[in-house]
Amino acid sequence: MRHPQSKVPAAVFEASAEERSAYFATGFVLRHDKLNGVFQETVTALKERTGKHMVVVAGPTGVGKTTLAKRVTDHVYQELVPHWHQDPGCIPCVCVELRMDSESGFDWKELYRQVLVALNEPFINHKCNIRAPTDYQKSQVMTGAHITKARLRTEMEQALKERKTRVLILDELQHLFNHGGGKVGQYYNVLKSISSRTDCAIIGIGTYELCFMMDWSGQMNRVTDYLQFSRYDFGTQSDLQSFFNAYNGLLAHVPMELDEQLLRPDLEYTYIRCCGCVGILKDWIYRAVNRAINEGAAALGVTHLEATMHPPKALKRIIEEIKEGEASFYQPDIDELKSEFIGMHSAAASSSLKEKKVGGHSSRPGVRKPRRDPVHAS
Predict the structure, then answer these.
(1) CA distances from 273 to 88, 254, 266, 318 (A)
(2) Helical ranges in the chain per DSSP H
(3) Under DSSP, is residue 298 helix (H, G, I), strand (E, B) or coil?
(4) How many angstroms separate the CA atoms of 101 and 6, rounded?
(5) Number of C-alpha atoms within 13 angstroms, CB side, residue 166?
(6) Of 60, 183, 226, 303, whose CB count within 10 A is highest?
(7) What distance in Å separates the CA atoms of residue 135 and residue 132, rounded to the nearest whole number?
(8) Degrees (nearest 5) of the Cα angle 359, 362, 366?
(9) Cβ-contact 63, 279 below 8 angstroms
(10) Cα(280)–Cα(156) distance, integer angstroms
(11) How many whole angstroms from its chain centre is CA 160?
(12) SS3 category, 299
């Protein structure tokens, strides 16, 4: 049977196997509650950006962070800069995915090139250093392969200002800090400087690794909005209902017949095997759909899901990372801060007063006072 609220265009059901598979992979965006919530928080953080140089969104793998980046991009074009099309040179938002290289240091030049490409900057690989005529003997043409990192950054910053770019989204931001080692603070300051010099808000999206790497100084916390894109909580009734709605919404986009048993799922079985993350759930259903299509099955069934789920060891590792990441977002209450900060100060002051009162003399026992002995006539 087809899903009672099927969202699949009728023509897709009759399309080829490749077209049906492509439709489920990229033909729709499921707007579920967790995605909607963190999207609204991100938009609010952008509107309230006063003294904040970055917005960082962190969450578990497969929760839907790349989908969030696309939604924020659409929002900037449609809401923040609705009349951008009236200026042919305006590009309100740019989104790039940071690359993970095998080298020890992060390739900043590659990031600057990625941003320039996204800004449609011409002749990126033919930038040159212009020298004064008196330096003709020393001058040389600098191609993209030889241009300095500082010069390429200057070109990028200039392009961001000329294109009137309001938001720069860096997806998979943890790749930057994975290369950082002991340079996390330095790398962060580079991003903060770019944001300040271009008046362009930077949104970093990545895994929970971001929290472990960046949450290490007071300054970073002061100038950064940290948002959590969390998984669904099985122990919360509202989250459980939202998770079922997301599961049902994905099935409504499956371009083939469905086994009736799939519409009455064991939520605990499904939840554990996707760790409460809709991105993992969608990938899982996608693999099951491909398995069913390749087998020539009449309908997608439970057996296809069982055959394509992640192995328990992989799920266990994802769950461990989720627990560690969620712990990094723990917020102490004000009373705890009061006892830790004001209480500590009071104790230190009390201890200092006690040291001043004890004894009343600065000299040590057995040491004579510095005064003259009486002089006797011989």
Answers:
(1) 47, 19, 11, 10
(2) 10-13, 17-26, 33-47, 65-75, 108-118, 149-162, 174-178, 184-198, 209-214, 218-222, 237-251, 267-274, 278-295, 302-308, 312-328, 334-357
(3) coil
(4) 42
(5) 18
(6) 60
(7) 5
(8) 90
(9) yes
(10) 35
(11) 21
(12) strand
Q: Locate all alpha helices (DSSP H) within 48-107, ordered by sequence.
A: 65-75
DSSP string for 252-290: TT-SSEE-GGGGS--HHHHHHHHTT-HHHHHHHHHHHHH
- Single out the residue of 168, 250, 203 nearest to residue 55, CA to CA: 203
pLDDT in tens, 188-206: 889 989 998 999 999 999 9
**Rounded-to-integer distance, Cα 203 and Cα 44, Å:** 12
pLDDT tens-place string over residues 296-311: 999 999 999 999 999 9
Please tell me what DSSP assigns to residue 231: P
Structure tokens at 168: 């720069």
| SS3 at position 369 | coil
Residue 299: phi, psi to the nearest 5? -150, 155
Cα(345)–Cα(353) distance, rounded to whole angstroms? Answer: 13
Give the amino acid at 351. Answer: S
> Would the pTM of this model clear 0.85, i.e. be above it?
no
Task: State phi, psi for 348 to the nearest 5 degrees.
Answer: -65, -40
| Residue 225, φ and ψ in degrees, nearest 5 | -95, 115
Does residue 199 contact residue 167 with C-beta atoms inside 8 Å? no
Q: Which amino acid does the sequence have at 195? A: S
Pairwise CA distance, residues 319 & 332, whole Å = 24
DSSP code at position 224 = E
Segment 206-218, tens digit of pLDDT: 999 887 766 556 6
Phi and psi for 236 in degrees, rounded to 5?
Answer: -105, 125
Query: DSSP for 12-28?
Result: HHTS-HHHHHHHHHHS-
- Rounded CA gap, 224 and 215, in Å? 10
**Do the Cβ atoms of 91 and 120 come closer than 8 Å?**
yes
Kindly report the CA angle at 83 between 81 and 87, in degrees rounded to 5? 105
* Type of residue found at 369: K
Task: In whole angstroms, give the CA distance from residue 113 to residue 64.
Answer: 26
